Amino acid sequence: MTTRVAVVGATGKLGRLFVRLIDETEGFELHAGLSSRDGLDGLAGADLVVDVTVPAVSPAIVEAAVRLGIPVLVGTSGWSEPRLASIRRVVAEVAGPGVLVIPNFSVGSVLATTFATMAARYYEAVEIIETHHPGKVDSPSGTATRTAELIAEARRDLGPVRAPRADQRARGQQVASVPVHSLRLPGIEARQEVVFGGAGETLTLTHDTTSQTAYEQGILVALASAPTISGVVVGLDRVLPLGTPS
Q1: Which of 31, 132, 181, 207 is catalytic?
Q2: Burial of 212: CB neighbours in 10 Å, binned 0-12, 13-18, 19+
Q3: pTM of this structure
Q4: Of 18, 46, 85, 151, which sits 20 to 30 A from 5 (CA to CA)?
């Protein structure tokens, strides 16, 4: 059986990567390649919609697909908890198909975030520095937002992280109590550093993306998983179980 995929945002860097992988992968075919400015009539008849647009239009695209009864794979950044809550209500309202939201398709990034949630229980002070190319339109990045939210969840019974003088603008934006600092610089694709501070030591977890090839494995896993998702599922780790070796 072939899965017909409509890619919205097909003219962007990530969209072009999706289109190429769909063309190259057995069992998938491109149903429609749309830009973020196109109408959404081209979604009809697709078995899966991929949204890799921009934060300003992404929620409307996802809601339109859900109301058409088509499962959605979201690779657009900016899906914070309030936005996720909104689309959960839509999915519940129409008893619609599932939505899989992937803040970062890199397996290395997912592992780094997992390690950060493990460390979060042992340090009271945590800050995130995320650096991307100048063309990235949103900040903080979706990966940083997701990392901060998972750190807060891991510390739920311990309380928020220590962030002194967080009211000062230079201290970054607080996401789930974690200060996040966004840099936009030429010469870089993507980097995230999660810095933990404790008595007499610091621990820094750093992940660098140097090429979009880092996303390919995660994209293929997400494409295969998205059509069978129920409800709203967030994170590549939810479809790529990260167990410990026996």
Answers
A1: 132
A2: middle
A3: 0.86
A4: 85
